[in-house]
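Good day; I would like, with your permission, to put a structural problem before you. I would ask you to consider whether the tokens describe a fold that such a sequence might reasonably adopt. The full record is reproduced below for your convenience:
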Amino acid sequence: MVFRGTGWEVALVRSLLANAEIKSYVFYGSFGTTWPWDSRGCFPLNRIMLSGEDVVKAKEVVAQYYEWMKE
């Protein structure tokens, strides 16, 4: 797992990963995009999963995403 968030956030980050030529898939937890939180309301269950060989590069993309969201 390299990222977790709402359905919208996961789709956005996944497109950034695809642009960086990183293959990934989305695990939609619980009821998918209509119910993206755990039973305590703590964290999103939608997760981006990928191969272990791409983790370092993917973490860089995710870090850039967080930087862009701050601005």
Notes: The chain has two helices and three strands. The chain has a mean pLDDT of 83. The first helix runs from residue 7 to 19.
